[in-house]
Amino acid sequence: MTKRVPVLEKILSANENLAEEIRSRLDEAGVYSLNFMASPGAGKTSLIEQTVKHLAGRLRVAVIDGDIATSIDADRAAAAGALAVQINTGGECHLDAAMVSAALPQLDLTQVDLLIVENVGNLVCPASFVLGTHASVLIASTPEGDDKPYKYPGMYRGVDALVINKIDLLPYLTFNMEEFRRGVEILNPGLVTFPLSCRTGEGLDRWLGWLTDSMQSFAASKRGK
Amino acid sequence: MLRMDNSSMHELPVTQSILEISLRHARQAGAQKISDLYLVIGQLASIVDDSVQFYWDIVSKDTPAEGAQLHFRRIPAAFQCRDCGTSFQLSGRDFACPACSSSSVQITAGEEFYVEAIDVESQA
């Protein structure tokens, strides 16, 4: 006898449930957390280096670094002054909640104010796997071209902040900022964006201001409870 | 070097998740075997049907879902203009409203990704 059983269950619900557990652990420890996503070479690690250096002495930063096989990024984050944990995904194209959950015990969260999870460089898969972080940040870069929001709508749609790195290269590129921003606005209306250059430092102050404001609001919401 | 010993795409964990969900619902229904799965996947969900099918044959082996037929229902991305209310589907690169050219549009469909139903066989 055959019968139809309605299921109506989201396929990524197991990942989403585990991400909620991670969020609770971070909330309890009072650690604000970001998921950095970008294509390879956009400047995730450079932005981490700049952020860690500028916050040094004020805030303690930890980095969980997702990489297919090397520890190059984690080494750079550690050299900049962050506590760094490396996850080698062994070929996987994205981090998922299980990997982050397994990496967390390697950090003493009582010694951390800000946790940055550096995802695998990829504009497709990481968008589907939430990690339990408080905010997702997409780092775009001008050499990638102004068509990226149109080509990777899932990624642009799911993030809370957008960094546009390498604006120092704009004079040498055909990148049309208006065309780029139009695509972003359709996919993610009102998205907060930070055009900057990790190389020259231009625009970094606005990014750091947003980050410290977000952390203060987070800390205030913890005290309110 | 290209590593072939591990998955290089996220369809493997996704397919394992589909299997886990289906087996759990089949168990709850007291079924011995799953014959068909109905999946709903939005165009914006970044999932390749053929890859899911490929991994399905591997991960479902020796389970009550082995040999089950996968049915994919694709939901095209759909947009609605916030200014004039026109509903439209994606055509090429431009997301702008075809009626009034406004770029203030919202996505109304295309992000779905779930198991809709399974067909199960029980001995009773």
**So, the CATH homologous superfamily of chain A?**
P-loop containing nucleotide triphosphate hydrolases
Largest sheet of chain A: 7 strands, parallel
Tell me the series of helices and strands of chain A, N- to C-terminal: EHEHEHEHEEHHEHEH
The geometry of chain A reads as: globular
3D shape of chain B: elongated
Helix content class of chain B: 10-25%
CATH level-3 fold name of chain B: hypothetical protein PF0899 fold
The DSSP helix count of chain B reads 2
Describe the structure.
The complex is a heterodimer of chains A (225) and B (124). Chain A has 225 residues and is α/β, with parallel strands linked by helices. Chain A has a single domain, classed as P-loop containing nucleotide triphosphate hydrolases (Rossmann fold), CATH 3.40.50.300. Helices cover 37% and strands 22% of the residues of chain A. A seven-stranded parallel sheet of chain A has the order 4-3-5-2-6-7-8, with helices on both faces. In chain A, helix 1 packs parallel to helix 4. The relative contact order of chain A is 0.17. Chain B has one domain (11-24, 32-121): hypothetical protein PF0899 fold (2-Layer Sandwich). Chain B starts with 10 loop residues before the first helix and ends with a strand. The A-B interface holds A 1-15, 68-69, 90-94, 96, 124-125, 127-129, 147, 150, 153-154, 157, 182-183, 185-187, 189 and B 3, 5-10, 13-14, 17-18, 20-22, 25-26, 29, 31, 35, 39, 44-47, 77, 93-96, 103-107, 111, 113-124.
Give a short overview.
With 225 residues, chain A is α/β, with parallel strands linked by helices.
Outline the fold blueprint.
The complex is a heterodimer of chains A (225) and B (124).
Chain A: E1 2-10, H1 13-29, E2 32-38, H2 44-55, E3 61-67, H3 72-79, E4 83-88, H4 97-103, E5 114-118, E6 135-141, H5 148-151, H6 153-157, E7 161-165, H7 177-187, E8 192-195, H8 204-223
Parallel strand pairs in A: 2-5, 2-6, 3-4, 3-5, 6-7, 7-8
Chain B: H1 11-28, E1 33-42, H2 49-59, E2 69-75, E3 78-81, E4 87-89, E5 105-109, E6 113-121
